[in-house]
Amino acid sequence: MKKSFNIAIIGAGLAGLTAAIHLRKSGFDVLLFEKEHFPKHKVCGEYLSNEILPYWNYLGVDPLQWGAVAIDHLALSAVNGNSLDIKLPLGGFGISRYELDHHLLEYALSLGCTLIPQTVEDIHFAENTFSVSTKDQQEFKAHLVIGAFGKRSNLDFKLDRNFTNSKNNWLAVKAHYAGEIRSDQVSLHNFKGGYCGISRVENHKINVCYLTRTEAFKPFKNIEEFQQKVLCENPHLRKFFSQAESLLDQPLSISQIAFQSKPSVENHMLMCGDSAGLIHPLCGNGMAMAVISAKLASECICEYVNQDWSRSELEQHYEQLWKRTFTNRLRAGNLLQRALQNDSLTSTGIQVLKHLPKVTQKLIQTTHGKPLKI
Question: Whole-prediction pTM value?
Fold first, then answer.
């Protein structure tokens, strides 16, 4: 490296932790800001595509050692129960964020990353340097900042990001269960107003995560009633919930989820993961996209130093690379989302796709990539 300077990463989710590991292994001093205490459950589908494994293995990360479950089949069902089962072109694995984020953080710290366990309240850029202010009134200086603070954060409002003024009417719910399902299969079940993903994670647990429009949920008293009266109209979900036992005291939920486009560079910060763009969960690839965006940002930062780029060159390269990598995936995800909201179209589509497995695999590939090159 020609220069030596520190990098601040705001948020220790998949994108933030992966970037921290990559950059620390590349010789940078990394400050990692995270307000939450680990281990911690998060609302998440907890399924990752195998496309990221070569990259993670290169970094020294092996989720299979932490109990990840190999998954190579997809089941899809309509509200009326019509369903199909297909082999995934690339496959993937299931692991909880509770387990995964904890191990990634421990690994990042073992490499020498510095954790700042505080809420970041503000970020200012002046004279080619960032000032990061925390809730306990500390201030940290950094040459570069990666924003990896998730789907929706108070920092988004501080930065006056474009999507914060838009109405976001999606709600997500997640819980872990004990029960019987195929361990090699991730399933996606449609219901009126949304869809639900089910897959196995470590220690024989089952992750259930569903997304619904807020207006579909409002008529019901609570999550349990909504599941009984809406989700269970789908016979596959009815069968699952009739025999499954919840492992959490209560489900986790988040609201105001924004699928609008977001800038990948904001106030000179490189945005990663959900902070840069959120693909619809039905695509089953949001977690992998977070990891890939961390790879793109980290590699651009390394080139910025090695090629002696200007800051504007770094930002332009990252923006172009992000768009080239993700624009088509996000567009395909939006189209699939619209189709799945139409019950009759979903049912008819499933009946047709049963006889066209190659077409189904092509559809899956539109929201997934090839194994990452190192």
Answer: 0.92
Any domain includes 322: yes
* Domains of the chain: total: 1
Task: List, in sequence order, every beta strand (DSSP E) within 68-225.
Answer: 69-77, 83-94, 114-116, 120-126, 129-134, 139-142, 144-147, 170-178, 185-191, 194-200, 206-213
Q: How do the pLDDT tens digits run along the chain, 374 residues long?
A: 334 459 999 999 999 999 999 999 999 999 999 999 989 999 999 999 999 999 999 999 999 999 999 999 999 999 999 999 989 888 999 999 999 999 999 999 999 999 999 999 999 999 999 999 999 999 999 999 999 998 878 888 888 887 777 777 889 999 999 999 999 999 999 999 899 999 999 999 999 999 998 899 999 989 999 999 999 999 999 999 999 999 999 999 988 776 777 899 999 999 999 888 766 555 557 899 899 999 999 999 999 999 999 999 999 999 999 999 888 777 776 777 677 777 777 777 777 777 777 777 766 666 666 777 77
**What does the H/E/C string look like for 61-87?**
CCHHHHCCEEEEEEEEECCCCCEEEEE
Q: Within a domain: residue 179?
A: no
- Does residue 311 lie in a domain region? yes
Which CATH number belongs to the domain containing residue 351 in this structure?
3.50.50.60
C-alpha dist (Å) from residue 263 to 173, 256, 269: 27, 18, 10
Sign of CA dihedral 158, 161, 162, 163: negative
**Residue 139 in domain:** yes
Q: Which domain holds residue 95?
A: 6-167+257-365
